[in-house]
Amino acid sequence: RAAPSLTAEQMDMGVDWLSKYGYLPPPDPVTGQLQTKEALTKAIKAMQKFGGLEETGVLDQATLGLMKTPRCSLPDLSETEVMVGRRRR
Amino acid sequence: ALVAQNKWSKRHLSWRIRTFPKESPLLGRDTVRALMYYALKVWSDISPLNFHEVAGNDADIQIDFTKADHNDGYPFDGPGGTVAHAFFPGERFTAGDTHFDDDEAWTFRSPDSHGMDLFAVAVHEFGHAIGLAHTSAIESIMRPYYQGPVGDPLKYNLPYEDKVRVWQLYGVSDSVSHTAQPDDPSQTADPPVLLDLPENRSTVPPARDSPDRCTSHFDAVAQIRGEAFFFKGKYFWRLTREKHLVSLRPAQIHRFWRGLPTNLDSVDAVYERPGDHKIVFFKGLKYWIFKDNNVEEGYPRPISDFGLPMEGVDAAFVWLHNDKTYFFKDNHYWRYDDHLRRMDLGYPKDSTLWKGVPPQLDDAMRWSDDSSYFFKGKEYWRVVGSDMEVEAGYPRPIGKDWLVCT
Questions:
Q1: Which of B106, B134, B136 should we substitute to test contact with A (largest number of A Cβ atoms within 10 Å)?
Q2: For the residues of B55-87, what is the DSSP string, one character each?
């Protein structure tokens, strides 16, 4: 659990969001393996930094609030960086 | 900033709205077209790119209002969440295409700030369409999150961060100062000309009957696309938004405003309609509506369409305070709602309610300093903000203050 008050639903939403906008590679489609805790923390920090939040690395309420803010569909990382992430995966 | 995406190799890009948003009384098709035009213009004003609207299926930038899964890999998710996206330039046939979620409550200058401001989102998405990625910079339209309305499309100025990124991609437009610095109001990157005025029109020598700008009592004065137009007889003078005369010599009305009768000897009043930014000309009991420089089909029509009296109008202007259109005739005035296309109840009223404004005006206009200006004879009066009273120190001379006269 990234934060004590976080529900499983919020956790899933957070991971989906981070994947959708390029901070986290999606779960492996073959093995279904999820991200490591370290990768998740790093992704959250990157998202918080990009959004102007304090880089706590946990899915706190401020972070979840920003994730619910209306936004553009395109990822925040460039296509090149997303592709690099996929290749690494 | 992230690494720049692909960019267009050509400089002239076509656009087209393929599907419009669901019906809304505040956001008609012409308004949507105008907002797209101005959102693209934000980028073309500071770069060598040019955008032109086309009708066919081959537009570089196809604009759609769609919802849910629309088969491009970026499904929309209903109100909130993702609101729009655009495809970067490149080889794919979708390059440049821009999609808005039709489940959003799109608005334009909503007074209560509800809904999603279409102009603000369109400026952001067209940034993607020309190659800009998201940025975390605080002062940028390319931040990924919706930041609320950005104000009047005619006055919007890109943050310096975004200008620099566009210049890195495409270079600087010929009309843009290379030394422009952030927060320096004297170094604006916006070219002053909004409407198409080919050089050869302004260099056509005026006829012998052309009036003297310094002694004229003007027939009509209007702010159109941020610029001031002074009409006299068959001619007009044009001032940029910085109040610089485009030319000391007047241009001929019928050569610029295509579709007015060539024998028209003068106009009574002119104003730019709020909402769709069409331009309305009054003469006698008739009026014409222009989209940019060209008259719309079906005009002239009788001014009774507005519920106006049968004697014509002296003046027409849109008050910034409430976005309503005010018509003046002799010592009366009317208030018209251009969004609802109807006259407000309780009018006409006595024009003396505008304290200090004289009767039988030549014309009136709003101006970008949030003031309204009233013109009569060789003098003009200023009304600031939402006051209905002339500011102290007026009247002042029109020629000296507006038209480079001594």
A1: B134
A2: SSS--SEEEEEE-S--SSS----SSSSEEEEEP
Integer angstrom CA distances of residue B324 from B44, B48, B190: 30, 36, 28
Site of tokens 């002119």:
B270
**Binary contact (B80, A70; C-beta < 8 A):** yes
Q: Which residue has the tokens 């035009």?
A: B37
Give the model confidence (pLDDT) of A5-47 as tens digits: 667 787 888 888 998 999 987 666 666 666 678 888 999 999 9
A19 vs B contacts (CB less than 8 Å): none
* Torsion of the alpha carbons at A21, A25, A29 and A35, rounded to the nearest 10: -120
Per-residue confidence at B56, pLDDT binned at 50, 70, 90?
Answer: confident
Burial status of residue B312 (CB atoms within 10 A of its CB: 0-12, 13-18, 19 or more)? middle
The pLDDT of residue B122 is above 60? yes
> Residues with Cβ < 8 Å from B276, sequence gap 6 or more?
B28, B30, B31, B34
Whole-angstrom CA distances from A85 to A55, B21, B58, B208, B354 are: 21, 36, 35, 73, 66
Residue B110: is its pLDDT beyond 70? no
Which are the contacts of B227, defined by CB distance < 8 A and separation ≥ 6? B192, B193, B194, B195, B238, B239, B240, B241
